[in-house]
Structure formats: structure tokens, C-alpha cells
Design a protein that fits this description.
With 128 residues, the protein is an alpha+beta fold. The chain has one domain. 34% of the residues lie in helices and 26% in strands. The chain has helices at 44-50, 56-71, 84-92, 112-123; strands at residues 3-12, 22-30, 35-40, 99-101, 105-109. Strands 1, 2, 3, 4 and 5 form a 5-stranded antiparallel β-sheet that branches. A hairpin with a 4-residue loop joins strand 2 and strand 3 (35-40). Helix 2 (56-71) runs antiparallel to helix 3 (84-92). The longest helix has 16 residues, at 56-71. It is globular, with a radius of gyration of 14 Å. The N and C termini lie far apart (33 Å).
Length: 128
């Protein structure tokens, strides 16, 4: 049975004033399947080409929170303890920091986890 889902691409925009960015992850919510998950894949070489002065270790730590918060894992901090719908809103909310979600997109899927992996491959991982 197909279910509706929403997703956003997590992007890193090292200098907001320049508007340059790279996609680093995807967050997917499928409420009818009680599913909320995030996958992150930071390509350090691409980021360094765009912004050589970015602290990749600090950025890795910040990005690592997305899957933890989505899963409700206590290691994600107090936001991870919120109900799924509130975690969804927190993860998808626009920000003015260097880590930003895209606009939200919608679709239908049979398997939210497989759809998340497919979106990560299509929108984030380097093409071969």
C-alpha cells in the first residue's frame, strides 16, 4: 500500500551571502507508517572546494544529530525526546545557519526506508 511522505534535503551553505551550497543529507517523514528518519553523507572534498576554511569535524558533529533526532534517540538531546510530529517540524524548519533544509517536497512510496536511501543516492551522493 502506497503512503504519502514528505522530505527535505539537508544542505550546507558555508557562506549564506554567496548562496553556494552542497547537499549533505535527506530527512523523510511518512506519518501513516510512523516513520521519520534522516541520512547524512558529507562529501568533505566537495565542501573543502567550496569553503576551505569550514571546520568539517564540527560540521560532522552537527550533522550527526539529524539521524539521532529523527529516530528519537536520547543521544540527540532534548529535541529527540519530543513527539515525532514535533521532531519533524524541528528538522524541517528553515534556519539562517550554514546547515539548512530545502523546501519540503512530497511523494508516495511503498517503503519509506528504501525511498530515503533512493533519495540520498539521487540528491546527495556523488554521481559516478
Amino acid at each position: 500500500m502506497r503512503s504519502a511522505f514528505d522530505y527535505a534535503v539537508i544542505r550546507v551553505m558555508p557562506r549564506v551571502d554567496r548562496g553556494e551550497l552542497i547537499n549533505v543529507g535527506v530527512v523523510l517523514s511518512c506519518p501513516t507508517r510512523d516513520y521519520l528518519a534522516a541520512q547524512i553523507a558529507l562529501d568533505r572534498a566537495r565542501l573543502r572546494a567550496l569553503a576551505p576554511d569550514v571546520d568539517c569535524d564540527e560540521l560532522d558533529r552537527a550533522l550527526a544529530l539529524y539521524p539521532l533526532i529523527a529516530a528519537g534517540d536520547p543521544r540527540g538531546g532534548p529535541i529527540a525526546a519530543l513527539p515525532r510530529s514535533e521532531r519533524f517540524h524541528w528538522l524541517f524548519s528553515p534556519r539562517s545557519t550554514i546547515v539548512q533544509p530545502s523546501v519540503t517536497h512530497a511523494g508516495l512510496c511503498d517503503d519509506p526506508a528504501a525511498t530515503l536511501a533512493k533519495l540520498l543516492g539521487r540528491l546527495v551522493l556523488p554521481t559516478r
